[in-house]
Amino acid sequence: MGTFIQLVVDGLSTGSIYGALALAIVLVSQATGLINFAQGGMAVLSAYVAWWFTTLGLPLILAILLAVLVSFVMGALIERYLMRRFERGDPDTAVVVTIGLLTLITGVCGWLWTYNNRQFASLFSLDTVQVLGASISVRSIGTIVVIVAMMLLLQAMFVGTKLGLALRAVAINPQSASFSGLPVGRLLMVGWGMAAVLGAVAGALVAPQLSLTPGMMDTALVYALAAVILGGLTSPIGVVVAAWLIGVLENLAAAYLPFIGYDLKVAVPFILIFVVLIVRPQGLFGRKVVVRV
């Protein structure tokens, strides 16, 4: 039982990191209708900015808060001066631009801070607590709590605030939203800025568990995209639950299914995607899109 609980909690902690990136992808999608493949690179850049502030002698929490502020500005500027040129055109072109942006940001991080591993301090204690024979780290618990808070806040924003409703209106039909008096350009900048903030939180959570490198979020981005497909692009809660499901099932399959093991556990989310897309194409928590002709 202790081993099982350990695997589940570790899976929830890892899945929470995937969930943070997935929430950022959902936020951009809800605001612009696009999938942002550069989200992982933006998270890495934010983590490097936070690390750089700590090298100047700033406390960790202040460094992360400043990095979050920088991330918001960065996301808003990327939307205003780069993505806006493609948002009204072919969606496939915009997606390719985000992939190019991912490559660019990763290269810039390597150029500025090299590709050497950097140590990033953890927000949470490395102590452990005993639960039914399992040693659960305080960092795992803290990571899960942070993601739950982010998930609930984002869901509440989309459902119960004017900002959330305005972002959704802009994503669905920007022209109609503009005719209704909504500041479409400003809302798009806010959406990208908030997504960058979520990415910054993800970077601050994953950097202490891995060494800080320009490519540290590459694998997490793949899992985050899997969580988006499983959970549904319209549901912040759904993508986090899907990310947790991926993290937990991946750990359990590696431990209890010998033919999968730790070498093939990466296949678990893709098997889940295959099954879900057959049974429920819109995702576990997504809504069907009805098109009137």
Automatic annotation (TrEMBL):
Topology of the protein relative to the lipid bilayer: Multi-pass membrane protein
Name assigned to this protein: Branched-chain amino acid ABC transporter permease
Keyword terms: Amino-acid transport, Cell membrane, Membrane, Transmembrane, Transmembrane helix, Transport
Highest taxon listed in the record's lineage: Bacteria
Signal sequence, renumbered to the chain: none
Pfam family, one: BPD_transp_2
Keyword Cytoplasm attributed: no
Family according to the record: Belongs to the binding-protein-dependent transport system permease family. LivHM subfamily.
Membrane-spanning intervals of the chain: 6-27, 60-82, 94-114, 145-167, 187-208, 220-247, 259-279
Subcellular location: Cell membrane
InterPro entries: ABC_transp_permease, BCAA_transport_permease
Native source organism of the sequence: Microbacterium kribbense
